[in-house]
Amino acid sequence: MCPRTMKDRVMNRIGELDSINLQNFIQMISKEHRFLSSLLDSLREAILVISPAHTVLYHNAAAQEFLGLPENASALPVEKLLPGLNLNLLLSDSGIGSRKSMRQELELTYPEHRIVQMYALPIDREDAPYALILNDITATMERAADMAESERSKAVSILAAEVAHEIGNPLNSLYLHLQFLQRLLKNPDANLADAAQEVAEARSEVERLDAIINQFLHALRPGKPVFESLDLKSLVLDSLNFMRQEITDRKIQLEFYWGENVPQIKGDASQLKQAFYNLARNAMQAMPAGGRLTVRCSADDNFVMLSVSDSGCGIKPENMQKIFRPFFTTKNAGTGLGLMIVERIVRDHGGSLAVDSRENAGTTFTISLPRQFRLVRGLPAPTESNEQKTKEGSPE
Q: Partner of 294 for a Cys bridge, out of 148, 255, 305, 373, CB 3.0 to 4.6 A?
């Protein structure tokens, strides 16, 4: 039942109540409202419900603390409260059923410095299309910096245990194929086609093992990036050229849009190629029956933004918080380490990684990297008429 139909039924029912029952009904609603408000205010996560006009419709107590909000924040645009957040992409959807989910890390400077992890989740209401959930990860980030070695050892233990589990299936399969091949070779009348098939299957399992181990080593021993001036366009084109045959075989249409005057960046070429390759491979794997792979790049005064979009199955809202966890994957042959590696590379380059996705309609990952030379825009020089007005309007 749609919200409007429910609302109409409730309003009709209220009109049928006598004064005593109406008073009881209002008291019940007031009690439920107090309960829900108390529940939301007890949460550590900040919650904002926003309008289609990008203003705040509701905020809990944690949001008031995080963002220094007044009691009435209805006139405040969300972009001012959360610098770096682009809600136009979310709120451009035409229908409730087509809305996207998005995950992004943001750095706040007011009322105090915080690093927050933001999740935008759709709500089935036209007047309140999204809820933003902010989780303060400042302490986590600081602990990670102060206790890097300890965290690294813990991560190694977790990854090692997961790798031991992950390689079990291909090893068992490889053993069975080799065992069958051994029996075939003992038979003088063995069919060479059967033997060749077993060799091909065994080779496929070896390649799968190699991929798991390589991904593990990239996650385990990332290495510090070696920075140099890079032309991002050349780097991306080299990577796409490397994947050209796979793009063709998968019947994928490639669209490439490069903004004008995209500046150079400082970065490690091999690591950034790895990050782009991982995102492009994920996009292609999300379109097993073919589709559209779109690569875009643009720049503003502070950042160069590179996005990789697919027209695939999208990410379910309940999986948005899991996709960067080690070994979490929804693909049959995935290792679950690709996005973890991308996020680590981007963070080591001083950038940020954002994802927005619409189930059954596609996903976009956007890497934002600092410009090599940040642009500083000065105020325009006053015109003669403006100067005259300033002089006339200034106090004696």
A: 255
Q: Which CATH class is domain 148-220?
A: mainly alpha
CATH topology of domain 43-143: Beta-Lactamase (3.30.450)
Going by C-alpha positions, the residue among 299, 207, 228, 315 that lies closest to residue 262 is 299
Distance CA 260, CA 1 (A): 48
Planar angle of CA 237, 242, 244, nearest 5 degrees: 90
Instruction: Give the strand pairing for 130-136 and 114-122.
Output: antiparallel
- 166 in Cβ contact with 327 (< 8 Å): yes
Give pLDDT tens digits for 133-171. Answer: 999 888 877 665 555 455 555 555 666 666 666 677 777
Phi then psi for 140, rounded to 5 degrees? -60, -45
Main-chain phi, psi angles of 243, to 5 degrees: -95, 10
Task: Report the mean per-residue pLDDT for the chain.
Answer: 77
Share of residues in the chain with pLDDT > 90 (%): 14
- For residue 124, what are its two tokens? 């089935």
| pLDDT (0 to 100) of residue 148 | 46
Average the pLDDT over 257-272 and give the result.
Answer: 88
Residue pair 127/51 in contact by the 8 Å Cβ criterion: yes
Of 300, 228, 295, 302, give the one whose Cα is nearest residue 266.
228
Task: Name the residue with tokens 């999986």.
Answer: 319
Cis peptide, bond prior to residue 52, ω within 30 of zero: no
pTM of the predicted protein model: 0.52
Distance, in Å, from the CA atom of 137 to the CA atom of 106, rounded to the nearest integer, reads 10
Residue 279: closest CA among 339, 345, 347: 339
In DSSP notation, 278-336 reads: HHHHHHHHT-TT-EEEEEEEEE-SSEEEEEEEE-S----GGGTTTTTSTT--SSTT--S
Instruction: Work out the pLDDT band at 47, boundaries 50, 70, 90.
Output: very high
**102 neighbors 354 (Cβ within 8 angstroms):** yes
Beta bridge partners of 295: 256, 308
More confident residue, 222 or 172: 172
For the chain, domain boundaries? 43-143, 148-220, 226-370
Fold: same for 148-220 and 226-370: no
Note the residue count of the chain.
396
Domain 226-370 class, CATH top level = alpha beta
To which H or E segment does residue 369 belong?
strand 362-370
According to the model, what pLDDT value does residue 373 have?
Answer: 62
